[in-house]
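Sanity check

After download, print the first record. It should look like this:
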Amino acid sequence: MQIDPSTPRNTKMKSGLLMAWNGTQLLLNRAAALLDGTPLKTPVTAVNVLIKLGNDVVNNNDALKDMIIATEAQLDIVTGALAKEGDTVSHEMIEYFAGYV
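Expected C-alpha cells:
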C-alpha cells in the first residue's frame, strides 16, 4: 500500500501505524502455529486472543453506531408523519416519548 504524498501528515502516520498493527497481528497469528510444543506458544496465543477480543469490541461498537443512526432516521420519519404544523398535542406526545428514549 502506497501513501499519497498529498495527504496530511497525520493521516500518513495513522495509515502507517495501521499497516504496522495489521502486520503484527498477521505475524503473531502465524507465529502461534510455528510455536507448537514450545514455552512461547501460550503467551503468543494469549496475545492473539486479546487482539481478537479488542477487534470484536471495535466491530461491535461500529455496528452499534450504525444501528443508532438507522434508528434515529426511522424516528425522524415517524416524527414527521405524526407531527403536523400547529398540532400541539402531537408535539407534546412526541416530546413525552422522546423523554423516555
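If your output differs, re-run the checksum step. Summary of this record's structure: The chain has three helices and no strands.
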